[in-house]
C-alpha cells in the first residue's frame, strides 16, 4: 500500500468544493510533512485532460451514457498510474477534486447505469485503490445550479447543462453512497457560510494528519 495520504473531494455541481480546497491549501501545506498535491478528475495529466475535453464539450450532445462512463474511467486510470500513485509512493498528500464516487453519483444515480458494473469498472481502473477519506460537499440542486449561474469565471460544461432532475438524482446518489460507506465518506453541509464549510472540512482532514 502507498505511504502518503489520499483525499478526494466530491459533491454535486455548484457545491463549492474547489473553492474550499483552494482556501485550505495554505494550512495543509503548513502542517503536512511531505508535499501537498492537488489535482482533478477528469484530467490531471495530459492524456486525461484531452479526454476531459471530449467528455465535457458542450457540442457532444450525441454522447451515449456508457461512452461517457468509459471515458471517465479511462481518464481515471491514466491519471492514477501516471500521477496519483507515484506521488503517494513518495509520501505526499494527494487531494483529488473528484474520483470514483463521481461515477457512482453521475453515471450511476444520474444516468441510471448499473451500479454493480460501475463498481467493477472503478475497481478495474484503480486496482482497488480508494481514498483514505472523502469529503462530500452537499448542497441542494437548486442552490448548486444558482451558484454555477452566478459564477461567471467557471467553465460551463456539458454536465452542467443537464436538467434539474438529473442534478437531484446525482445529489441523492451521493447521499445514499455516504450512508453505505460512512467510514470513508464524511458529509459536509455546503449550504452553510463559506467560513463554516472551510472549518468543517479542516476538522475532518486534521484528524487524518
Ligand atoms: P468539475 O466541474 O468538478 O471539474 O467536474 C466535471 C464534470 O464531470 C462534473 O459535472 C461532474 C462530472 N463527472 C462525472 O459525471 N463522472 C465522473 O466520474 C467525474 C470524475 C466527473
TrEMBL record:
It catalyses: dTMP + ATP = dTDP + ADP. Residues 9-199 form the Thymidylate kinase-like domain. InterPro entries: P-loop_NTPase (IPR027417), Thymidylate_kin-like_dom (IPR039430), Thymidylate_kin_CS (IPR018095), Thymidylate_kinase (IPR018094). It holds the Pfam family Thymidylate_kin. CDD domains: TMPK. The keyword Transferase applies. Keywords: ATP-binding, Kinase, Nucleotide biosynthesis, Nucleotide-binding, Transferase. Its EC number is 2.7.4.9. It comes from the Bacteria. The keyword Cytoplasm does not apply. ATP binds at residues 11-18. One of its GO terms (molecular function) is dTMP kinase activity. NCBIfam families: DTMP_kinase. Phosphorylation of dTMP to form dTDP in both de novo and salvage pathways of dTTP synthesis. Belongs to the thymidylate kinase family. PANTHER family: THYMIDYLATE KINASE, UMP-CMP KINASE 2, MITOCHONDRIAL. This is Thymidylate kinase. It comes from Streptococcus raffinosi. The lineage of its organism: Bacteria, Bacillati, Bacillota, Bacilli, Lactobacillales.
Amino acid at each position: 500500500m502507498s505511504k502518503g495520504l489520499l483525499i478526494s473531494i466530491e459533491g454535486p455541481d455548484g457545491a463549492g468544493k474547489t473553492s474550499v480546497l483552494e482556501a485550505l491549501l495554505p494550512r495543509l501545506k503548513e502542517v503536512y510533512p511531505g508535499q501537498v498535491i492537488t489535482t482533478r478528475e477528469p484530467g490531471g495529466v495530459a492524456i486525461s485532460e484531452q479526454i476531459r475535453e471530449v467528455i465535457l464539450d458542450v457540442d457532444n450532445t450525441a454522447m451515449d451514457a456508457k461512452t461517457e462512463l468509459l471515458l471517465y474511467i479511462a481518464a481515471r486510470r491514466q491519471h492514477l498510474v501516471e500521477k496519483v500513485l507515484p506521488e503517494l509512493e513518495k509520501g505526499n498528500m494527494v487531494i483529488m477534486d473528484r474520483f470514483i464516487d463521481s461515477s457512482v453519483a453521475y453515471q450511476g444515480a444520474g444516468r441510471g447505469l448499473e451500479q454493480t458494473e460501475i463498481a467493477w469498472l472503478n475497481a478495474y481502473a484503480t486496482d482497488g485503490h480508494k481514498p483514505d477519506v472523502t469529503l462530500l460537499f452537499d448542497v441542494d440542486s437548486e442552490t448548486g445550479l444558482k451558484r454555477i449561474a452566478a459564477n461567471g469565471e467557471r467553465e460551463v460544461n456539458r454536465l452542467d447543462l443537464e436538467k434539474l432532475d438529473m442534478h437531484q438524482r446525482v445529489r441523492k446518489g451521493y447521499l445514499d453512497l455516504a450512508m453505505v460507506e460512512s467510514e470513508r465518506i464524511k458529509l459536509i453541509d455546503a449550504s452553510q457560510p463559506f467560513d463554516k464549510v472551510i472549518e468543517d472540512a479542516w476538522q475532518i482532514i486534521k484528524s487524518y494528519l
